[in-house]
Amino acid sequence: MHIFDGLNKAMANFFLLIHDKIVFAVIPNKNLSYGIAIILFTFLIRTILLPLNVKQIKTSFKTQEVQPELKKLQDKYKNDPQKLQAETMKLYQEKGINIFAGCLPMLIQYPILLALFFAFRNIPNLAGVHFLWINDLSKVANKKDMLSYILPILSAITTYLSYTIMNITNNKDNKNTPADTTNPMSSGSMGIIMSIFMAWMTTTVSSALALYWVVGNIFMIGQTQLVKVIIEYEKKKEEKV
Q1: Residue 191's CB: how many other CB atoms inside 10 A?
Q2: What does the pLDDT read at residue 147?
Q3: Mean confidence (pLDDT) of the chain
Q4: Cα separation of 173 and 176, whole Å?
Q5: pLDDT of residue 40
Q6: Per-position DSSP letters for 173-196, written without gaps between them
Q7: For residue 171, what are the domain limits?
Q8: Do 212 and 123 contact (CB within 8 A), yes or no?
Q9: What is the pTM for the complete model shown?
């Protein structure tokens, strides 16, 4: 519990440092400064996690590339699950895929979200602060205010895009197709489930945390697209060689 208390305090102090010393010094209007500080804070957190996220993206693309080989193994050893597991791990090792490394950014993300949940609740000056269409950054969505549903809707859309874009690969004709469209729990289905869940979650937390989540998703979408372009460029260079 003391570890989380320390993380909560560290996150709150980091955010206040960004707001008080950087943003508010330039924009002395709290109805703008706090929202901008949340956006800047999100970009800084995502930048710190960038190396891990890049590794996760590369792992995701590598995993999709070996899907045809993995399908052959599943057909070949469908009656021998132990052999299938051994051959699958061997395939991943040969292709340089570390499935545990791909999960690390996601595991790190949730303690940060939990810490921010308490951090934003303990920033007294956040109460009553407006930003764009948001009436109060410290409060949850107001069911009587239609504008308050904008964040949950954006949360659903950006969560779906950030999840599914990680599971899109290029086929031989360079057309984007889902990695496994025959699977009922494919990237599209899981993306819908995750987006609905996160839309609901953002109606139960402060608008400040919901804004952090949406901005983080947008950052992730752009980051994934950029890494994808780099991977494709590196592949073309290797093919020419």
Answers
A1: 21
A2: 79
A3: 78
A4: 9
A5: 93
A6: T--EEES-TT-TTSHHHHHHHHHH
A7: 2-240
A8: no
A9: 0.76
